[in-house]
Amino acid sequence: MKNNKNYKSSEKLGKSQPNSLILMGYFLAVVATLIWAGNFIVARAFNQDILPVGLAFWRWTIAVVTLTPFAIKTTITDWKLVQKHLPYLAVSGFLGVTAFNTLIYIAGHTTQATNLSLIAASSPIFIVLMSRIFYGEIIFLTRFAGIAITVSGVILLLAGGSLEKLLNISFALGDIYMLLAAIIFAGYTMLVKRKPSAMHITTFSLCTFSLGLLFLVPLYALECWIYHPVVFNPAIVRALLYVGVLSSVVAYLAWNQAIALIGPSRTALIYYMIPVFSGLGARLILNEPIALVHLFSTLLIIAGIIITNRQ
Question: pLDDT at residue 199 above 90?
């Protein structure tokens, strides 16, 4: 009950924030999803060159090394808070770092990219439902309508405007992993909202990254024993730097701060922009064509996000 009251009071504070802070929250959420769209491209491009746990392990190793110089001062200042909330930080680190990303990389080895994007689009729905169940957030009719429009745009985009293509999608074991990852990410987003207000966001990020990496150590050791360790080359190093610095440090800091500014439900709906950004990235990087259906589905997604986030 106390957490519920704290959440409602924080939502009221969020609504009374200056428009500049609200806009900043949306901007940070867009930045995070833009970077994560590139993360999907990297995961797909290197799924034959690097094993999933190895990719996750080195990603978060780079993230911890990158973030430590910027977060060590606030972490020392918040050390008593860290000790007090260590179980909370451990669970957040396990869900958001160890489990979520590793499951995505595992799923990328056993299912199609279309399936990954389609199932990933379910995560914001779980976030909205969890916000209602755990924090009592009211889900208005306009929010339902906005979600429906947004989901329609995502499905249209992934199906390429072809009903036959959508009906012929086959599902594999990797789809179960991706669905579990989507639910876990929703749970992680709920936990971020419960971050102690006195704890700096950099402290929270460094602690969860470090604890999540710690949980990955035995998994990576097992993967190396059964298969082989990561074999580095220039292309893999560049990919690891992208997922380690941008997809981990920059994107997670932006996402967590967006949640603090505009709340988990409104932040979650921006996550639907990932397929749009992935399509643009494929056009710019892989020179894939953009058809009329892509533009129409993008307009649907953006319209749904605007409707859902109306006060």
Answer: yes
According to DSSP, residue 168 is labeled T
Query: What does the DSSP assignment read for 264-290?
Result: HHHHHHHGGGHHHHHHHHHHHHS----
104 close to 247: Cβ distance less than 8 angstroms: no
Of 275, 5, 246, 295, nearest to 123 (Cα)? Answer: 275
* 21: CB partners within 8 A, 6+ apart: 261
What is the Cα–Cα distance from 65 to 70, expressed in whole angstroms? 10
Gap between the Cα atoms of 212 and 191, Å rounded: 14
Q: Exposed, middle or buried: residue 79 (CB in 10 Å: 0-12, 13-18, 19+)? A: exposed
Alpha-helical runs (H) found in the chain: 2-15, 19-45, 52-77, 79-84, 86-93, 100-110, 113-120, 123-135, 141-159, 163-167, 173-193, 201-226, 234-241, 251-262, 264-270, 274-285, 292-308
The answer to whether residues 265 and 27 touch, using CB atoms and an 8 Å cutoff, is no
Q: What is the pLDDT of residues 128-140, one digit of tens each?
A: 778 777 767 766 7
- Please tell me what DSSP assigns to residue 230: -
Q: Is the pTM of this model over 0.85?
A: no
The CA-to-CA distance between both ends of the chain, in Å, stands at 25
DSSP code of residue 310: -
How many Å apart are CA 273 and CA 258, to the nearest integer?
15
Question: Which residue, 5, 34, 4, is CA-closest to 258?
Answer: 34
Asked if pLDDT for residue 294 goes beyond 70, the answer is no
pLDDT tens per residue across span 112-130 = 665 566 667 667 777 777 8
Please name the amino acid found at residue 173: L
> Across residues 78-93, what is the average pLDDT?
96
User: In this structure, how many other beta carbons lie within 10 angstroms of the beta carbon of residue 16?
Assistant: 7
Within 10 A of 141 (CB to CB), how many other CB atoms are there?
7
The Cα 184–Cα 154 span in angstroms is 20
